[in-house]
Structure formats: structure tokens, C-alpha cells
């Protein structure tokens, strides 16, 4: 099972279809059960649609921070 940090790392490869089928399944099963990762994926997908591509360095640092905070809060509330 992947953790949230893996999703942040893998999201660009996922959106560009560069994951293996096994990685893709693991990615999707994490996103299916993790609301913060789902909204992160949605935001990244929108970014890709807008600019046509996304690089890891395109993830704004403040967004990464926001996400990590969201993940921590979410885990605490679990
Ligand atoms: Zn997650």
C-alpha cells in the first residue's frame, strides 16, 4: 500500500501514463480511500488540462505544504 507522500511523488507519472499497471493499481487504490489525495489528484489533473503537461517542479511549494498539513490533520482525525 502506498502512503500519501508516494502519491505526491507519483502523481505526474500517473497523469502522464508512465506508471506500470501494478503501480497504477496501487496508486488508484490509495486515492480511492484517501480524500486529501483525491483532491490533490483532481487539482493536478486540472493543471495538466490547463497547461498540457506537468512537471514535479510545477507543484507549488505552498500547495505541497498545504497538502502535507491536510494529510496530517486527516490522519489525526481518523
Ligand atoms: Zn493519501
Can you give a write-up of this model?
The chain is mainly alpha-helical and 78 residues long. It contains four helices and no strands. The relative contact order is 0.16. The structure holds zinc ion. Zinc ion binds at residues 4, 7, 30, 34, 36-37.
Quick description:
This protein has 4 helices and no strands. The chain is mainly α and 78 residues long.
Rg of Cα set: 12 Å
Attached small molecules = zinc ion
Determine the strand fraction and express it as a percent band.
Answer: under 5%
**Runs with pLDDT <50, length 5+?**
none
| Helix proportion range | over 70%
Number of strands: 0
Give the end-to-end Cα distance, rounded to a whole number of Å. Answer: 18 Å
Give the helix tally. Answer: 4
Describe the main β-sheet briefly.
Answer: none
- Overall pLDDT, averaged? 83
- The global form is globular
Order of helices and strands: HHHH
Structural class: mainly alpha
Amino acid at each position: 500500500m502506498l502512503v500519501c507522500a508516494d502519491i505526491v511523488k507519483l502523481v505526474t507519472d500517473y497523469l502522464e501514463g508512465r506508471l506500470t499497471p501494478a503501480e497504477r493499481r496501487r496508486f488508484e487504490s490509495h486515492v480511492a480511500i484517501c480524500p486529501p489525495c483525491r483532491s490533490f489528484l483532481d487539482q493536478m489533473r486540472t493543471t495538466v488540462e490547463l497547461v498540457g503537461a506537468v512537471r514535479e517542479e510545477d507543484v507549488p511549494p505552498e500547495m505541497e505544504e498545504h497538502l502535507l498539513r491536510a494529510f496530517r490533520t486527516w490522519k489525526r482525525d481518523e
